[in-house]
């Protein structure tokens, strides 16, 4: 370890967040704290990206008022939509645009992942969470996913009551709102709730290639243990070094909504003995961790299996395929 390095282990960290801190913590993560609509680099070959930026810029510049949403989206003919839902593949800049909207919009406003909002409701209770969020001018929801029926009912009701209170909502996802839950649970049994949720939004599609893959197509190669020690010793700042299996086990003891707090202040991560994850619940927790590492631009080096072999072929073709593919894209960026 060099003199400019502090060595820690993520598996030793179990952050606790007081309920009153949860709303205050709903702000864009460090990687997106200085972004703007102007800094969003559109692909000239994909006009939907420029159109999405223009739509969000217009959306955030207007104040909420009775009948505003219908006028915005239907040119005088009310569509019933009360927010913007950005649908698109991974790596097209949806989170950049969402954070830009947060920065541009009148405050107070919140920015968080879907799981952070469901955790907020769990910690505060539905009534208090709704009342606190109803004070916002804008609520931004990143990585909108419905992984179980309980979340479907909960978020449908919350979004409906917030929009009824005049709160603007912008959500991003890799899945159209009418298709949320597909391949994960019996979505047809909750079609009414899913449709009610979809009706809250005007859906806008963003097309394009994964910008992270324009120059990089695969994560960096894993290192032999001796080389890993040498490479790790050259890292500066706060370095989190963990055995991969121990880290995965530890993630089950920390709620995913606290993963961001768990990795705060980390500059680099060193994972020993990376292996393929053969359990879906474990894999999804790992995805949530990588998302928070990506938010903070944490460099990763590893031994064991290559990072693009961390998920099984079955996982990469199942109901969570888009989540896993986004994770692989982010691992490529962080390891390179």
UniProtKB/TrEMBL annotation:
Annotated region described as Disordered, given as residue ranges: 29-53
Domain of life (superkingdom): Bacteria
GO molecular function: ATP binding; ATP hydrolysis activity
Keyword flag Endoplasmic reticulum: no
Compositionally biased intervals (Basic and acidic residues): 40-53
Keywords: ATP-binding, Nucleotide-binding
Any one annotated GO CC term: cytoplasm
NCBIfam families per record: ZapE
Protein name: AFG1-family ATPase
Organism: Brevibacterium linens
């Amino acid at each position: 370890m060099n003199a400019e390095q502090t060595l820690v282990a993520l598996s030793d960290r179990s952050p606790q967040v007081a309920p009153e801190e949860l709303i205050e913590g709903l702000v864009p993560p460090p990687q997106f704290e200085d972004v703007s609509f102007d800094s969003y680099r559109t692909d000239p070959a994909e006009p939907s990206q420029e159109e999405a930026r223009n739509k969000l810029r217009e959306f955030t510049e207007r104040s909420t008022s009775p009948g505003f949403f219908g006028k915005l989206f239907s040119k005088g003919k009310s569509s019933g939509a009360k927010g913007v839902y950005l649908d698109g593949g991974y790596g097209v800049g949806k989170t950049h645009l969402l954070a830009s909207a947060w920065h541009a919009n009148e405050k107070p406003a919140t920015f968080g992942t879907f799981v952070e909002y469901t955790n907020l409701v769990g910690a505060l209770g539905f009534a208090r969470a709704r009342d606190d969020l109803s004070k916002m001018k804008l609520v931004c929801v990143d990585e909108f996913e419905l992984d179980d029926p309980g979340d479907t009912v909960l978020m449908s009701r919350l979004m409906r009551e917030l929009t009824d209170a005049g709160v603007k909502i912008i959500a991003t996802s890799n899945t159209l709102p009418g298709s949320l839950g597909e391949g994960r649970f019996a979505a047809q049994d909750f079609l009414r709730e899913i449709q009610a949720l979809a009706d809250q939004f005007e859906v806008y599609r963003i097309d394009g290639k994964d910008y992270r893959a324009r120059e990089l197509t695969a994560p960096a190669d894993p290192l032999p243990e001796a080389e890993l020690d040498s490479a790790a010793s050259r890292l500066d700042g706060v370095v989190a070094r963990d055995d991969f299996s121990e880290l995965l086990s530890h993630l089950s003891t920390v709620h995913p909504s606290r993963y961001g707090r768990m990795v705060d202040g980390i500059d680099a991560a060193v994972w020993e003995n990376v292996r393929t994850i053969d359990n879906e619940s474990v894999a999804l927790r790992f995805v949530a961790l990588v998302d928070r590492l990506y938010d903070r631009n944490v460099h990763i080096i590893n031994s064991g299996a290559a990072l693009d072999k961390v998920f099984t072929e079955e996982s990469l073709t199942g109901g969570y395929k888009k989540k896993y593919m986004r994770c692989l894209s982010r691992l490529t960026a962080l390891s390179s």
